[in-house]
Sequence to fold (161 residues):
Amino acid sequence: MKKIVGVLLVCSALLFSACSNDKKVDESSSTTIEKSSSTKESSTSKSSNSSSSSRSSDTTDNNLQIESEAEQERQRQSMQAELDAQQASLDAQYQQQQAEQQASVEAENARVAAEVQRSQQEQQAAVDAENARVEAEWQAQLQRNEAENQRLAEQDKANGY
Fold:
């Protein structure tokens, strides 16, 4: 989870940096345009030949600005694609960790269930053994009592009762 947060922070910083760079480029472009405009105005007042070269320069500047904006858009899209790919990777890692944790929990549950069953079987075996011992002791006592009763009956017979 800490890795995911760290990666997201880095991605956010990169995106913020890219946006800041876009603003700087935009400011540079507008400064360049202003300079071009002032240069064009002074060129227009100098001569008519300068006017046509100014238009050519103006077209070139516009083309450069459009190309610059297109390049910025490509860079923004590229960065967005990278961020999307990183997010997808992080999502996949998260899903894998969730699956591993789930498997671990299920394995632990199975182990505990087996341990409980083994313990119950041991307890049942101990109870069965104790019951068998008590039954054997009871049978032995019963035989002793019968033997004692028989002896007393013979003794009473011998004494004439």
Remarks:
- The chain is about 100% helix and 0% strand.
- Helices lie at 2-46, 48-159.
- Confidence is low (pLDDT under 50) at residues 43-50.
- The chain has one domain: 2-121.
